[in-house]
Design goal:
This protein has 198 residues and is mainly α. It has a domain of 134 residues. The chain is built from 9 helices and no strands. The N and C termini lie far apart (55 Å).
């Protein structure tokens, strides 16, 4: 049998490696690079997109104000409104997320994240964004939201990731929102090392 030319061998190896690599759901090296990029993201405020109408701007601003300044059932309804607006199928669905990410910058500048007031507001914004997009959980493994005992370093990490997600237009990918009741159970069922008796 003739030995294949060296060039053909190299091509076949490259095709094999590329195909296997492409079948990986989230190559670790890719996640690592992306995470490093996200943690370099500046924390900013963003202008309203041109397609956001004045009426919608008022609705969004009123909803955010109600969440933080009124509370109670009105705040719950306002949170639901923002999530519903963001889940709409047309291009204007993105009118909400930039404003929520911008509010994180406002909170940090006004309250910081070391004390309750600032951290609790970032918790709320992070929670709303997670209901809109499952990027934190599905892309970076951040399966649990911020809580009041979380270190400020984690708050900054989540805020930077949301800024990267918005500024780079990654929200267009639309990761399915994470549901721990379903997704954590699926992970356990897929784990071959999990003890079925526990």
């Amino acid at each position: 049998m003739r030995t294949p030319p060296l060039l053909l061998v190299l091509v076949l190896c490259a095709l094999c490696f590329g195909g296997c690599h492409g079948r990986l759901k989230n190559p670790t090296s890719s996640i690592g690079r992306t995470n490093a990029e996200a943690q370099k993201a500046a924390i900013e405020t963003y202008p309203w997109p041109d397609y956001v109408t004045g009426e919608d701007r008022v609705r969004i601003e009123d909803a955010i104000s109600t969440i933080f300044d009124v509370g109670g059932r009105d705040a719950v309804d306002s949170e639901l409104l923002l999530v519903e607006m963001a889940r709409e199928a047309d291009a204007s669905a993105f009118r909400v997320v930039g404003r929520l990410v911008s509010e994180m910058k406002t909170v940090i500048d006004t309250h910081g994240v070391e004390e309750y007031e600032g951290k609790s507001r970032i918790m709320v914004l992070d929670r709303i964004l997670r209901k809109i997009d499952g990027m934190q959980e599905r892309r970076f493994g951040e399966e649990y939201g911020l809580d009041i005992d979380s270190p400020s370093s984690r708050a900054f990490r989540l805020v930077r990731t949301w800024n990267w997600w918005y500024r780079e237009g990654r929200f267009i990918q639309r990761f399915k929102p994470w549901d721990p009741r379903v997704d954590l159970r699926d992970d356990e069922e897929d784990d071959p090392d999990l003890d079925p008796g526990h």
